[in-house]
Specification:
This protein has 197 residues and is of the alpha/beta class. The protein is built from seven helices and nine strands, in the order βαβββαββαβαβααβα. The model is unreliable at 191-197 (pLDDT under 50). The structure holds guanosine-5'-monophosphate (5GP). Guanosine-5'-monophosphate is lined by residues 13, 37, 41, 72, 74, 76, 82-84, 102-104, 106-107.
């Protein structure tokens, strides 16, 4: 597999990384395309199949696992599998675009290890675990039990932050957006010229 750049944004659920990723996708000069993950979880809110995720059954997910179709996959929460299909990255690279991922910390670091040169791995840190809880509750898309599951995982995820290329603090959203845009633009510019040599 060969092509454009890979930009990974990982963070605990509720840290605001999806907002950052959406902002970056709207910056046309960055030439980014979102990597649509496959998941066995049910759609939430107004999520659409083939836009937010490829929503597939657990059975289909396991078939893809066995066939070696995934670049990486994780059981992010019990019985909720998420994974990046190899065909997804190929599809985006074939368009001549850079890939942006909104994936969990383990998956993010796995992509970085597989493609160390091409990948920029950014960790988005929420101000605190307490703040995360407030944000998840405000979102009103998950049950109390699911929120607690996400909070319990957040502390473990926070500990992986130093393994990323950069950490963005997301307490003031505008600053986080600006910093993210700057980092991505720099990564794309540097690596394109390095690769062409
Ligand atoms: P959510 O259920 O809130 O959409 O996602 C839960 C977590 O799974 C988030 O941290 C999200 O970034 C992560 N995730 C989404 N897609 C993938 C994927 O393809 N691989 C991995 N490893 N994690 C993913």
């Amino acid at each position: 597999m060969k092509g454009g750049k890979l930009i990974v944004f990982s963070a605990p659920s509720g840290s605001g990384k999806t907002t950052i990723v959406r902002h970056l996708l709207a910056q046309k000069h960055l030439n980014l395309e979102f990597s649509i993950s496959a998941t066995s979880r049910a759609p939430r809110g107004d999520e659409k199949d083939g836009t937010d995720y490829y929503f597939i059954s657990l059975e289909q997910f396991k078939k893809h696992m066995k066939a070696g179709d995934f670049l990486e996959w994780e059981e992010v929460y019990r019985d909720n599998f998420y994974g990046t299909l190899k065909t997804e990255v190929e599809r985006i690279w074939a368009m001549g675009k850079n890939v942006i991922f909104d994936i969990d910390v383990v998956g993010g670091l796995r992509i970085k290890r597989k493609f160390p040169e091409e990948t920029l791995a950014v960790f988005v840190r929420p101000p605190s675990v307490e703040e995360l809880k407030i944000r998840l509750k405000k979102r009103k898309t998950e049950s109390e039990e699911k929120i607690n599951m996400r909070i319990a995982k957040a502390s473990v995820e926070m500990a992986t932050a130093p393994q990323f290329d950069f950490i963005i603090e997301n307490d003031i959203l505008e600053n986080a957006l600006e910093e993210a845009e700057h980092l991505v633009a720099q990564h794309i510019a540097n690596e394109i010229s390095a690769e062409e040599e």
